[in-house]
What we know:
The structure holds two protein chains of two kinds.
Chain A: H1 4-26, H2 32-50, H3 52-62, H4 67-109
Helix pairs in contact in A: 1-2, 2-4, 3-4
Chain B: E1 8-14, H1 21-31, E2 35-41, H2 48-54, E3 59-61, H3 67-81, E4 86-89, H4 101-110, E5 115-119, H5 131-148, E6 160-162, H6 164-172, H7 180-189, E7 194-198, H8 213-231
Parallel strand pairs in B: 1-2, 1-4, 2-3, 5-7
Antiparallel strand pairs in B: 4-6, 5-6
Helix pairs in contact in B: 3-6, 5-8, 7-8
Amino acid sequence: MMDIKIQLIIGVIVVSALAVIVNMIRKKRLELRYALAWLLVGISILILDCFPYLINWLAEQFGIADPVNMLFFLGFCFSLMIIFVLTVAVSRMSIRIKQMAQEIALHEKG
Amino acid sequence: MRKTALRKIIIIPVYNEEENIESTVESIQKNALDFDYIIINDCSTDRTRKICEENGFNVINLPINLGIGGAVQTGYRYAYEQGYDVAVQVDGDGQHDPKFLEKMAEYLKENDVDMVIGSRFIEKKGFQSSAARRIGISFFSILIKILTGKKITDPTSGLRMVGRNVMDIFSKDYPRDYPEPESVVAILRRNLKVKEIPVIMHERAGGVSSISFKNSVYYMIKVTFAILIERIRKY
């Protein structure tokens, strides 16, 4: 069973992180398109944190002794996924910037 | 404002519409005589660009693919900078009938509203989209009603006509992808007037829709979040 203390700590951290993200989207410093994954991860972790029996059940299926480790493991997997998606986005952007620079240069040449 | 003094422009965002672009422009030239038009070619990979240039169409070619939002915003910037009084967005796939544009312009002027949307769901005539899409659309309609108190029957309609003030807003700030419902809420939140008039839309003549089944889950989630966040923005 997960300790109520860690449950509370995780809850507070996730809620504040979500508040910061939403506020940044509101002020248009973050594009929803890229922030969406973070929002969804935050919400799923919050749900798991609020209903610990989901975590207990999952931990049992994975053969993890301490359910809180299941939460950390999931968080780690989500983070890796987001980092990978960002790497893809960066690659796409560098291609687009190159394409645009070439277009401008060709234009200038006439 | 005098009737004859109004300068009106049609913004046509296109991506790979080689099958439809010619008939779309022909239909505009036949049915919307008072309107100029500008095609925004969003870096199509088919013959769209070539067809536009061969026919001497008025076209802006984007050097990279910006997505529907970026393309439409380019159109609004052009319209604003060229001093147009009224801009209307018409999809390049033949779904929107230019016959309704004159009616929309009259409505915009006579009722002094900031945005007129052509809605499929007031008279429920013509192409009504699939059942699944209608459920999605009414979900957004209800969400907008709850969040803004205003009834918009067709928040996903791409057929929207705006005046100069909204053109200015859109040219500075327009959502990147799936922009329609979110941008309607942004206008409503500024206490500007949005009205709908009934139109008849057609099933797209050729090509493929930008919203496939694979994307529809992302679409629903993204637009829902976008509308919710739009509600807590301050203007």
